[in-house]
Write a structure and sequence with these properties.
Elements (H helix, E strand, L loop, with lengths): L1 H16 L3 H20 L2 E2 H23 L2 H4 L25 H20 L3 H18 L6 H15 L8 H8 L7 E2 L2 H23 L8 H5 L7 H9 L4 H14 L1 H6 L1 H21 L4 H15 L2 H8 L5
Antiparallel strand pairs: 1-2
Length: 320
């Protein structure tokens, strides 16, 4: 009898140790369902509208120096990498434009970007702005930096979204004719920007960790004396104690690498937002040529994660 009891107790213990595949599958289904609801659930339209206002302005600010010389930048008046005949290092070759066409592209980018920010003829403006950004990113690969590449992606996302439906000139005219004021948009229209932002941070943090940021605590300090140095960064580097920089470097690395977690947890989300804005403000002040990158990232941070009551207070004064 005792042997039988021992055998039964042993079988029960094994059953407890053996994972229940049905329960595991159900847990995965619940997690997937919750993730899908998070991705597709309605979002406040104010987030999309703030991105529509700010992102085109930051891109145009970055492009301004190039747009002033569009004939050399995109046209036959300047130097361009020749056609390499299908070489793997040049997957796509776009020939220089005639001078008149180069200026046409430049003017299209400027006016469509400004119109998109104003919410004027939003659908047409967003399409033209996205198309012009994609073209210049492909036509001049040597001058395609983070803002021009990321800006093209964000412009395409704005084009396929219902941006301009709540605020701006188009919304104001429609509401004057008796149209409704939308308050929400489908989740993917906002979640895309949030995912792009935290993924950008996370990938940047991983790359830093795989490079020298873990083994050398003075990487950030050395950047202050690089070719991007400004008068502000020179003074900061001279006045700040040396022990501060390894701490700032470590905090920045943790912030970027763990951005998905920091922005996913409501308890630390505002802290993550504040640190991100402060970080990019310092980047813009200390590394002059990347100021428009900092402004773009601040625009994404504000549009994606600024508390909704603050967004409503700011945008409530706009027409629409």
């Amino acid at each position: 009898m005792s042997k039988k009891r021992r055998r039964l107790s042993k079988e029960r213990a094994e059953e407890k140790r053996t994972p229940n595949r049905g329960e595991d599958l159900l847990a995965w289904e619940r997690a997937a369902s919750a993730g899908w609801r998070w991705f597709t659930g309605p979002q406040a339209i104010e987030r999309l509208e703030l991105l529509r206002i700010l992102v085109p302005l930051t891109v145009l600010g970055f492009m301004a120096a190039r747009l002033l010389h569009a004939d050399h930048w995109l046209g036959t008046a300047g130097y361009h990498v020749p056609d390499l005949g299908g070489d793997y290092r040049q997957p796509l070759y776009l020939a220089p434009l005639p001078v008149w066409a180069a200026w046409s592209v430049a003017l299209t980018m400027v006016f469509s970007g400004l119109a998109l920010s104003l919410g004027l003829f939003t659908r047409l403006a967003s399409g033209l702005f996205a198309a012009s950004l994609v073209y210049v990113a492909l036509a001049d690969r040597l001058a395609a930096f983070t803002v021009s590449k990321l800006g093209a992606v964000l412009a395409i996302a704005l084009f396929v979204s219902p941006c301009g439906a709540r605020f701006g000139v188009d919304a104001w005219r429609r509401i004057r004719r008796g149209g409704v004021k939308p308050t929400q948009v489908s989740g993917p229209m906002v979640r895309f920007f949030q995912i792009v932002l935290v993924a950008f941070y996370c990938c940047s943090g991983i790359c830093k960790a795989k490079a020298d940021w873990l083994s050398n605590g003075h990487i950030l300090w050395s950047h202050l004396y690089d070719s991007y140095q400004t008068a502000f960064s020179y003074q900061v580097a001279n006045l700040t104690p040396s022990w501060v920089w390894p701490w700032l470097q470590g905090i920045t690395l943790v912030y970027e690498a763990f951005a998905p977690l920091l922005f996913a947890l409501p308890v630390v989300r505002r802290l993550a937002l504040g640190w991100g804005l402060l970080m990019h403000a310092m980047i813009g002040l200390m590394f002059g040529p990347v100021v428009y990158f900092s402004l773009m990232m601040c625009s994404l941070l504000l549009g994606c994660f600024l508390p909704l009551p603050w967004l409503e207070r700011v945008l409530g004064r706009l027409p629409g």
